[in-house]
């Protein structure tokens, strides 16, 4: 909402040219994004530095002698003062270089390009499930407010909120993979299909179709369906709840009553009048839930051996692989700020009070 | 039972209900009591929310009476009896990998859960409220600066931020609590700021200001009370998330330290046996689930009760 | 709404199916391709593929199959010790300092370049000059970046020569040359990828340049690595054309994949999962004694712990049998000396067992009848945390109140190396197949002062001066008579058992579970890493 605020300040001062206003708002917006991103990096950097995890040990290992340890310490630039290290890092980032990961021995950018599509694939499917099922469920609940479908949907949703995901994941794996054999096990595809499909987008579902490998596509589907369903459940729980509450708000508005009095059919009232009006806040909600999923669900990724962003950042953090942590944070931060901006924009468009 | 009190406005038993549901309160205290009673009745009528309330109540009772409810010491090991199935040898929920009674551990673990929830539920909202109302009330560069700070913390993935803090502070239950509080406050700040923006120019606030009240006095005395209901609802709904985050930290070995019977750590230890000795992970899993569900049901109900927009429809 | 239905059935199935889950895992019959070996294991320790840098279990596993060494162990009988590898023979000079190797002819690297003495020279100089963590394995013979021009050199294309600073037991030198760091890399290929005088380290971290049975196809960190067999391997044709190792963290997941036939081998199953699959006729479990020891050690800078009677008492407060009979069942055996069983000079005596009375008596004599408070530091790996909790329990029986601090490996290790702890619960794996590897770390401490900074040595980390043992172990490395040398190590271990602030508790038994049709899978015993090339199925 910060952008809206800035624009409002500008407006109060009495500049009238709309072009000037837009331009000024845009600059202020970009400025606040820049500040947020630098702040984000700074906080991460500080956390990483005060952490009692020794980044040098992560590289040289348990057996290293003092001499080797000190050489590595220097090579990693840790002998420089903190602010110098931070400035150097900022300079690198500005040029799109996040440095080398000490854990994977390759550039962080390359690592993220590898792990992010895995998360993207999972998050997108989960969000599709969340929207495809959550929105109709929310509408159904709102229409039947207080009656049993509403209560049932509420219960299903709250179950989703309350389940520890790692336990849920392990149980899902046991039942659908172990006992029923309906889906494939941990990992993104069966192991012997690895490295067959050329990497284009990094998302196996898409790459296999591009390569025309239908068999691999279905194999990948059978692997992703379970983790995506489990993440999707959370998404459904959230989205259906929000849809319900938005719809109820609309139902209490006068124009709906008017439409009903005029004899517009109930279906039309719901789908043609109420729903379009909740679209904007709903899109915001969906965007935020998508952003949360894109940050990577660490626990789901561990249980399903899913090589995604959450897992990557966690591993890096626990081994003090600073470049990787900072790189990961920038990506997550950028996603968040981007989607936040998007939702601010949407609000501004739809809600005159925020203008 | 016939003599009605003459001076006191505290009624007798029979009149209590009427007094509590009076629509013309006679004093400020009376008004509060009426408001509370009405809320309570709404809660009582909302079966699901009431169920949630009962679950939380049981958790509190469980924590208080843990020594009476537990059948053994929570950390007493018996390697010979490890992984005993539920119901065998008097172990209601079975034993874990070191032969400890799972029921007793769960009972004592409720204290840890309550401790985490209690501290986080107090610190995070208060901090968020402070930041949010100050930002909203003062506006200008203070608002800009504080909101950037909120954005920065919001842009972090929660579990990862908590992980970073725990790693920085050293593993342990205290660090877990601090870390979770630090990650939980930004949403409260946002809510509080939004609420403050809608009321800061209200007439009665201006009136107070004209009387010469200080900024902090206005914020704490007049802005906070109005933000409370939305914050309380949000806190209750967040409790489940907090329990799950704590459990997640425990699962990664960064929460409570062994042998403390923290539920998440118990699941983590039990996942090794999940295929053949399902109860070791499933029992704490159930416990977490039930308590989170309790908080969610209660929070959901409270939202319906406290949200004025909703009650009009 | 199909999704919703599946959720409902999930909830139902979870409540109904759990109690009987173990028995009804269905067999999918989807076998892996016949010429491919697929393994589920944990490979998150892998941080570099450069053999002159790597020092992790997964790295050694890989190097063992990608690279050859001058001398190698024979997977069909590891107890034979070092055998001719890329060197077909060698001679040792009169003074015992110069080793001259004759290279086997006609062997090619994966790139097609021939393997020559120049490559051996490059590889070993590389190990010395890069000064990475495992470099001590070769530099302990006196090689330095300054003298390596003379001490490590190719005399001609087929003759390679090294000269040590003094006389060492030949078995010691040659044993060290079977370690991963002595892998021979393709000098031309590596040199062509050199950047800023880094000896090609940046490139070799993620690539391979060997002459072994396999070459690296792909390594995705924390996900998987895959190797492809190279046709015409000089030791014989390799049956498995591809080997893929996938990183699977959870034992339960590994087991499910093995039972379903999605993998051929599962390397990290828990004792409970092993017990559960032991009745499955399609699967088998092979036990191998590995070199890893589980121990606890007491920092001698701590007042209470430095009392010899206290250290002795603590050794009687470990429930050795209880642990190996329960949560460590099948995966660890009791071993109380610093050399793993199967090593030259092994000592199988187990003088200690849980004896609370005796421990109390000793504590009383030391003036700690009421016990004391102490902190364990331990890595957050399940079995170590379980051991720590068992210790906490038995220590308490003698009045010692122990708290446990767990953390990530790097956190705990940092404190251990800084001598900032009281009791450490941890593990040690030997670095090369010679008794000196453990003797050097457990029982050798040339300078016990804080300034000594022998952070690589466990004796130093625990501030254990090891005065007598330092002398003895220094003598043992120079003893050329094998029998006599072995006896010296036995003696050293007996002294160590008595006086050292270490309670060595267990030795690792690796239980590899595999499909019944897999044969020839050798994880490398106590001395080396896994061999993929003899595997058939």
Set out the fold topology:
The complex is a heterotrimer of chains A (355), B (313) and C (537).
Chain A: H1 2-12, H2 18-50, H3 55-60, H4 66-75, H5 82-94, H6 108-143, H7 148-162, H8 165-179, H9 204-210, H10 214-251, H11 254-261, H12 266-294, H13 298-303, H14 309-318, H15 322-350
Helix pairs in contact in A: 1-2, 2-15, 6-7, 6-10, 6-12, 6-15, 7-10, 8-10, 9-10, 10-12, 12-15, 14-15
Chain B: H1 13-20, H2 28-45, H3 47-64, H4 66-69, H5 102-138, H6 140-154, H7 158-169, H8 173-199, H9 203-210, H10 215-251, H11 263-270, H12 279-306, H13 308-312
Chain C: H1 2-17, E1 36-41, H2 57-66, E2 71-72, E3 83-84, E4 87-92, E5 98-103, H3 117-130, H4 136-139, H5 148-151, E6 152-156, E7 159-163, H6 170-176, H7 187-192, H8 201-204, E8 214-220, E9 224-229, E10 242-247, H9 251-260, E11 265-266, H10 271-277, E12 283-298, H11 308-315, H12 320-324, E13 332-334, H13 356-366, E14 373-379, H14 382-397, E15 401-407, H15 409-417, E16 423-428, H16 436-442, H17 458-461, H18 467-476, H19 482-499, E17 502-515
Parallel strand pairs in C: 1-10, 1-11, 14-15, 14-16
Antiparallel strand pairs in C: 2-3, 4-5, 5-7, 6-7, 8-9, 9-10, 11-17, 12-16, 12-17, 13-17
Helix pairs in contact in C: 11-13, 18-19
Question: Would you mind describing this structure in some detail?
Answer:
The complex is a heterotrimer of chains A (355), B (313) and C (537). Chain A has 355 residues and is mostly helical. In chain A, 75% of the residues lie in helices and 0% in strands. Chain A contains 15 helices and no strands. In chain A, helix 6 packs across helix 10, helix 6 (108-143) packs antiparallel against helix 12 and helix 6 runs parallel beside helix 15. The longest helix of chain A has 38 residues, at 214-251. Chain B is an all-alpha fold and 313 residues long. Chain B has a single domain, classed as MetI-like fold, CATH 1.10.3720. Helix content of chain B is 72%, strand content 0%. Chain B is flat, with a radius of gyration of 24 Å. In chain C, 32% of the residues lie in helices and 20% in strands. In chain C, strands 1, 8, 9, 10, 11, 12, 13, 14, 15, 16 and 17 form an 11-stranded mixed sheet that branches. Chain C has a 4-stranded antiparallel sheet with strand order 4-5-7-6. In chain C, strands 2-3 form a two-stranded antiparallel sheet. In chain C, helix 11 packs antiparallel against helix 13. Chain C is globular and about 70 Å long. Classes of the chains: A mainly alpha (355), B mainly alpha (313), C alpha+beta (537). Chains in contact: A-B, A-C, B-C.
């Amino acid at each position: 909402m910060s952008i809206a605020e800035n624009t409002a300040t500008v407006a109060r001062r009495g500049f009238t040219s709309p072009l000037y206003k837009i331009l000024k708002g845009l600059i202020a917006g970009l400025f606040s994004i820049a500040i947020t991103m630098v702040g984000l990096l700074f906080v991460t950097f500080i956390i990483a530095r005060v952490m009692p995890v020794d980044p040098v040990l992560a590289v040289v290992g348990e057996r290293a002698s003092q001499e080797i340890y000190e050489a590595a310490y220097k090579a990693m630039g840790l002998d420089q003062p903190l602010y110098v290290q931070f400035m150097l890092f900022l300079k690198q980032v500005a040029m799109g270089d996040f440095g080398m990961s000490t854990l994977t021995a390759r550039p962080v950018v390359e690592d993220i390009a590898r792990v992010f599509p895995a998360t993207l694939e999972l998050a997108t499917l989960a969000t599709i499930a969340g929207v495809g099922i959550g929105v109709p469920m929310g509408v159904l609940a709102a229409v039947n407010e207080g009656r049993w479908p509403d209560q049932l949907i509420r219960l299903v949703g709250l179950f989703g909120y309350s389940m520890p995901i790692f336990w849920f994941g392990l149980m899902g794996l046991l039942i659908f993979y172990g006992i029923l054999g309906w889906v494939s096990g941990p990992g993104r595809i069966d192991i012997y299909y690895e490295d067959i499909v050329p990497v284009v987008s990094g998302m196996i579902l898409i790459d296999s179709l591009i390569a025309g490998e239908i068999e691999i596509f279905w194999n990948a589907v059978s692997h992703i369906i379970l983790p995506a369903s489990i993440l999707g459940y959370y998404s459904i729980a959230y989205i259906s709840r929000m849809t319900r509450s938005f719809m109820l708000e609309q139902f209490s508005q006068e124009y709906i009553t008017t439409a009903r009095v005029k004899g517009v059919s109930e279906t039309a009232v719901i789908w043609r009048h109420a729903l379009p009006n909740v679209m904007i806040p709903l899109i915001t909600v969906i965007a935020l839930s998508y952003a949360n999923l894109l940050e990577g669900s660490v626990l789901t990724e561990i249980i399903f051996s899913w090589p995604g962003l959450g897992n990557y950042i966690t591993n890096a953090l626990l081994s003090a692989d600073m470049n990787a942590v900072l790189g990961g944070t920038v990506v997550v931060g950028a996603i968040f700020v981007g989607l936040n901006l998007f939702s601010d924009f949407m609000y501004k468009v739809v809600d005159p009070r925020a203008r | 039972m016939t003599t009605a009190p003459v001076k006191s406005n505290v009624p007798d038993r029979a009149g209590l209900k009427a007094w509590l549901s009076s629509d013309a309160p006679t004093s400020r205290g009376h008004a509060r009591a009426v408001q509370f009673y009405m809320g309570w009745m709404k809660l009582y009528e909302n079966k699901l929310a009431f169920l949630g309330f009962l679950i939380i109540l049981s958790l509190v009772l469980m924590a208080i009476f843990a020594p009476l409810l537990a059948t053994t010491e929570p950390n007493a090991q018996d390697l010979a009896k490890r992984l005993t199935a539920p119901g065998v040898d008097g172990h209601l929920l079975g034993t874990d990998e070191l032969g400890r009674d799972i029921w007793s551990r769960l009972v004592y673990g409720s204290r840890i859960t309550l401790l985490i929830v209690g501290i986080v539920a107090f610190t995070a909202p208060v901090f968020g409220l402070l930041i949010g109302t100050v930002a909203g009330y003062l506006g200008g560069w203070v608002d800009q600066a504080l909101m950037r700070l909120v954005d920065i913390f919001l842009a972090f993935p929660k579990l990862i931020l908590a992980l970073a803090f725990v790693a920085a502070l050293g593993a342990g239950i205290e660090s877990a609590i601090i870390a979770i509080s630090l990650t939980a406050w930004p949403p409260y700040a946002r809510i509080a700021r939004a609420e403050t923006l809608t009321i800061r120019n209200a007439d009665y606030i201006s009136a107070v200001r004209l009387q010469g009240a200080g900024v902090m006095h206005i914020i704490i005395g007049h802005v906070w009370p109005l933000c409370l209901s939305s914050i309380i609802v949000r806190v209750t709904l967040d409790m489940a998330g907090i329990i799950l985050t704590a459990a997640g930290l425990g699962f990664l070995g960064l929460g409570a330290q062994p042998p403390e019977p923290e539920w998440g750590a118990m699941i983590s230890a039990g996942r090794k046996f999940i295929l053949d000795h399902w109860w070791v992970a499933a029992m704490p899993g159930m416990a977490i689930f039930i308590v989170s569900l309790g908080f969610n049901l209660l929070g959901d109900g409270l939202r319906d009760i406290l949200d004025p927009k909703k009650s009009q429809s | 709404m199909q999704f919703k239905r599946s959720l409902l059935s999930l909830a139902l199935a979870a409540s109904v199916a759990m109690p009987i889950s173990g028995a009804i895992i269905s067999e999918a019959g989807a076998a892996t391709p016949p010429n491919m070996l697929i393994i589920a294991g944990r490979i998150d320790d892998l941080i570099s593929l450069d053999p002159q840098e790597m020092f992790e279990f997964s790295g050694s596993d890989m190097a063992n199959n990608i690279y050859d060494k001058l001398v190698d162990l024979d997977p069909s009988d590891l107890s034979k010790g070092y055998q001719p590898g890329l060197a077909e023979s060698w001679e040792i000079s009169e003074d015992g300092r110069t080793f001259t190797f004759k290279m086997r002819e006609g062997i090619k690297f994966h790139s097609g370049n021939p393997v020559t003495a120049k490559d051996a020279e490059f590889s070993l100089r590389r190990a010395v000059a890069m000064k990475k963590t495992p470099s001590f394995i070769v530099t302990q013979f006196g090689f330095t970046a300054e003298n390596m021009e003379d001490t490590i050199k190719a005399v001609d294309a087929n003759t390679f020569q090294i000269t040590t600073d003094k006389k060492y037991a030949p078995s010691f030198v040659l044993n060290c040359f079977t370690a991963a760091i002595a892998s021979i890399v393709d000098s031309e290929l590596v040199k062509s990828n050199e950047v800023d005088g880094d000896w090609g380290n940046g490139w070799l971290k993620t690539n391979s340049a060997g002459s072994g049975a396999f070459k690296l196809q792909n390594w995705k960190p924390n996900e998987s690595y895959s190797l492809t067999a190279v046709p015409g391997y000089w030791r014989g044709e390799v049956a498995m054309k591809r080997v893929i190792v996938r990183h699977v963290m959870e034992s339960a997941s590994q087991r499910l994949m093995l039972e379903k036939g999605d993998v051929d081998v599962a390397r990290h199953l828990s004792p409970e999962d092993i017990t559960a699959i032991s009745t499955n006729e399609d699967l088998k479990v092979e036990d191998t004694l590995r070199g890893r020891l589980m121990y606890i050690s007491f920092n001698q800078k701590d007042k209470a712990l430095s009392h010899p009677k206290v250290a002795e008492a603590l050794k009687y407060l470990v429930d050795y049998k209880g642990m190996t009979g329960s949560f460590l069942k099948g995966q660890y055996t009791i071993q109380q000396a610093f050399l793993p069983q199967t090593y030259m000079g092994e000592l199988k005596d187990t003088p200690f067992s849980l004896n609370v009375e005796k421990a109390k008596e000793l504590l009383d004599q030391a003036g700690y009848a009421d016990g004391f408070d102490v902190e364990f530091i331990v890595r957050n790996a399940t079995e170590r945390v379980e051991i720590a909790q068992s210790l906490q329990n038995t220590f308490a029986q003698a009045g010692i109140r122990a708290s446990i601090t767990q953390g990530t490996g790097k956190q705990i290790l940092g404190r251990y190396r800084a001598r900032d702890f009281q009791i450490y619960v941890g593990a040690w794996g030997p670095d090369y197949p010679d008794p000196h590897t453990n003797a050097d770390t457990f029982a050798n401490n040339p300078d016990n002062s804080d300034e000594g900074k022998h952070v690589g040595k466990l004796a130093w980390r625990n501030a254990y001066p090891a005065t007598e043992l330092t002398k003895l172990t220094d003598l043992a490395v120079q003893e050329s008579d094998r029998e006599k040398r072995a006896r010296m190590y036995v003696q050293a271990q007996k002294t160590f058992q008595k006086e050292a602030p270490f309670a060595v508790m267990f030795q690792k038994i690796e239980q590899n579970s595999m499909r019944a049709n897999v044969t020839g899978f050798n994880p490398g015993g106590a001395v080396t890493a896994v061999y993929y090339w003899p595997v058939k199925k």
